[in-house]
Amino acid sequence: MKLHHFTIGVMALALTVSCVNDKESKTTSNATQEQKSDEKSHSDEIIISAEQAKNIGLAVKTIKPASYYGSIPVGGKIVEASGDERTVVASTSGIVSLNRQLTEGTRLDKGVAVMNISANNLQGGSPTRNARIAFETAKKDYERATKMVDDNIISKKEFNAIKAQYEAALVAYKALTDDGKGGVSIVAPISGYVKSCNVKDGDYVTVGQPMLSITQNKRLYLRAELPEKYYDMLDIISSATFKPSYSDTVYDLNKLNGRIVAVGKTTTASPGYIPITFEFNNAKGIMPGAFAEIWLQTSAGKEALAVPVSAITEEQGAYFVYIKTDASCYKKQEVKIGMTNGELTEIVDGLKGGEQVVTEGAVNVKLAASRNAIPAHNHNH
Question: What is the model's pTM?
Answer without folding.
Answer: 0.50
